[in-house]
Amino acid sequence: MAKTEARNIGIAAEAPKQRCADVKCPFHGNLSTRGRRFTGTVTSTKTRKTAIVEFERLHFLKKYERYEKRRTKLKVHNTECINAKDGDIVTVIECRPLSKTKNFVIIQKLGVERGFREKMEGREAAKIEPKKAEAESPEAA
Q1: What is the CATH architecture of 33-113?
Q2: Residue 130 backbone class (left: φ over 0; alpha: ψ -120 to 50; beta: rest)
Q3: Which DSSP string corresponds to 82-130?
Q4: Phi then psi for 65, rounded to 5 degrees?
Q5: pTM of whole model > 0.85?
């Protein structure tokens, strides 16, 4: 069933110009949205129709009376009409459970994050360096 017009989802989000036939699309399908809304960066789109969105939040440490940065990763539904890529800044909103781990859907692309590729390369390098240090330490002992 191809609809001619995008549905109003009740949120001030611009409907995508491209049309899709996805039943789980909030604009062109039957999916209703509710609850929490976040803005984050797409870090992976390797799985089909799924994206991993990451955003930072502040967590208060009572003992030290300070905040620390923490990262949260969400698996979200990436519809054909929005089609977010790695490095895109997106708005996601909660919906009914779409699978065992997906409870959010992308409703809007806001732009591209600057320095995304360098940030991801830095994280990969940080993962590799501790492993090299562990491999060298038994020789010294």
Answers
A1: Beta Barrel (2.40)
A2: alpha
A3: T---TTEEEEEEEES--SSS--EEEEEEEEE-TTHHHHHHHHHHHHHHH
A4: 55, 45
A5: no
Q: Tokens in use for 27? A: 């604009």
User: Which phi-psi region, left, alpha or beta, contains residue 10 (left: φ > 0; alpha: ψ -120 to 50)?
Assistant: left
What are 140's two structure tokens?
């010294």
Nearest to 109 by CA among 6, 40, 44, 33: 40
Q: Which two tokens stand for residue 69?
A: 């940065």
Instruction: With beta carbons less than 8 A apart as the criterion, state whether 99 and 31 touch.
Output: no
3-state helix, strand, coil in the chain (%, to 5): 20, 40, 45
Show pLDDT as tens, one digit a residue, over the chain (141 residues).
Answer: 444 577 777 777 778 888 888 888 888 888 888 999 999 999 999 999 999 999 999 999 999 999 999 999 999 999 988 889 999 999 999 999 999 999 999 999 998 888 888 888 888 888 887 777 677 766 655
For strand 104-112 and strand 50-61, is the pairing parallel, antiparallel, or unpaired?
Answer: unpaired
Residues 6+ apart with CB under 8 A from 38: 53, 55, 74, 91, 92, 93, 104
